[in-house]
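#data-curation
PF: Archiving a pair of folding outputs for the training set. Convention for this channel: one message per protein, sequence first, structure tokens after, nothing in between. First:
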Amino acid sequence: MTTERTAERTGGLIPLDYTPSKMRIERIVPETSDVKTFRLGFCDERENERFSFRAGQFGLFSVFGAGEATFCIASSPTRKGYIECSVKRAGKVTDELDRRNEGDVIGFRGPYGNWFPIDRMEGKNLLFVGGGIGLAPLRSLIWNCLDLRDKFGKVCILYGARSVDDLVYKEELKAWQGTSGVQTVYTVDPGGETPEWDGRVGFVPTVLEEANPSPEDTIVVTCGPPIMIKFV
């Protein structure tokens, strides 16, 4: 049912509709032992065509009969026709989402919330600092900026996780590293490495000091555990 109230969505006024839209799971990517990334497309093609959002916004995702939970939209608004969200198992709804398969239908409401002021970042150097699943909200902005690469200066992406298994978006980290003008540094906490791991070992604030990105004309965007953000 649609109310007469309105809300701002990406600069325009829209009716507030509390009925979830139906979205089909198009692809599932296992990121870690307890995190999956879901690619979703609206079952109604007209919604796919008119839907828009901005990096940093979130949605309410529902499994029918289990409930509803809030997750950031982890894909870039520059990439049309689908959205992605990364879900960590942590309760009833996330457990049910984890059991879904490609082709299954779930509910979605959104987008909601504030967004990153990407227009004010143009011409600046960018430093992204993420920890654990906190890379998910940054991923939307990172891809948004990389898809508009010529509008920004140098880009540094620093990411850390508790262990090798907890690193999300492993293939994308490699892809970002191979992008011109982008420095990508990722690390695991001491004790979280495996015998096969040949990457960095150390806490994010320490690795940030070692990477020593230039603070000049730089905007920093960070998301992760509070203790990490405190020292960043």
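PF: Second:
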Amino acid sequence: MMRPSGIAIIALLFFSSCGNRSSVSYIDEQGSVSPLWGAQRFSVEEYQGIVTLKIINPWQDAEGSEFTYYLVRHDVSLPDSLKGRQVIRVPVKRIVCMSTTHIAMLKALGAEETIVGISGTSLVYDHDIRSAVSAGKIPDVGYENNLDKEMIVSLRPDFLMAYGVSPSSAEYLRKLGEMGVTVMYNADYLEEHPLARCEWIKVFGLLTGRETKADSIYESVSRNYLGLADTLRQLDEDEHPAVLLGAPWEDVWYVSPSNSFTARLLYDAGGKYIFSDLIAPNSVPYSTEAVFNRATEAEIWLNPGSATSLSNIRLADYRLAQLPVFKTGRIYNNNRRVIEGGGNDFWESAVVHPDILLRDMASILHTGLFPGYSPVYYRILK
């Protein structure tokens, strides 16, 4: 049974103060409980050497959906009660990854050798993984409905880790299951808090036999994140700059709600979100004009779509160049670490480093507090 350490208790208190966040766990009177300190989309329980891993609501609007996997060590006999269930023998040796975040977590654990297939290899940022792809050691298995199912079967994976599925697009996963491939759902991208998203490293720790290392990484990241967030909460209200997020696409601006991952990060970094009153399960479409009316108060603009320069923004919509924040030039995007082909490390390793993300954002909002600091994932647009 995993027991919460001091930092775990601090984290739990912190989450409890953030929108009534609660710890997720499953209790068995005869088993042990593994409390989670923030993640809402998975739970872990261990009993007599068998780990029950439940993935909860793994896609948007999937309320009431739950998938259970039984992790059984290779040296443990499979009980009759688990025959016909989703059983994964651990530690696993062969994984097909459908997201770059899965790659990042395995790399952080030193378990990248388990990766035998990737969906979208051109979007991978990590140099070592790209080298393995170039050497023909890791093939690209395709995307969703265009997956090379025969190739996946030939790779003999212990499981394929999927994400972003929905009832309408999960047909390819069902077919893979019929072909004998175990599919495990991953909902890290749906976690609202940066630390909750990072906590999914514990799932990978359980799967690869690196539970202790996963816990150590998470505790270190939590300590760094919570310590900095606590310091920034001491700032006076007038020291919280107003921030605009995102950018329009064909005159539609998908606005992140205040309970989203990015807005949570912004709040912890000591920023004031101009849509702090917007609460929704997903991004909300607004007209560019409607956002423009609020954006006039913004002092800083973050994550303006795919823009790599101020001219990109001006060409996308000339009205945006009239915003006060455009004229002051305090516009930053999360594409500092991008390679040819489109791989962006923000969408890869940042999931394991929310503490660095927080420091990046805080250094942008409060430059005087971080003299000499150079953001890892963010850069100013010119």
